[in-house]
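[audit] Reproducing an earlier prediction to check determinism. Same input, same settings, fresh worker. If the tokens differ from the archived copy the diff job will pick it up downstream; this log only records the rerun itself.
[audit] input (105 residues):
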Amino acid sequence: MKDKLTHIENKISQLRQKKERIQTQQALLLMKEAQKIFQGEFSPDVALKVLKDHWNGASETQKEEWKKRASSFLSSSHKTRKAAENRNSISQQSGKAEVPHHEHP
């Protein structure tokens, strides 16, 4: 019984770590996309201010439209994560470490 509880606790810990990795990957992808948009004038503070001002000033209709179109970012993030996981899995099997590579649509 104790072994089963330990196994479950370990699995929970692994899932939490996986969740953190995914969130970090999404944050990095978001940052890279923002850097592309702002080009040489990028700073997290400016990006956050622009985002906040546009969101707060937008109509509910506009917000709904953005939410509908947001699925493309989430799906590309998911595809990028899956591709990185596959590459890392293959690298681990061959004994080589690989730096994650992010693909953009």
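[audit] rerun output stored. Observation attached for the diff report: The chain has four helices and no strands.
[audit] end
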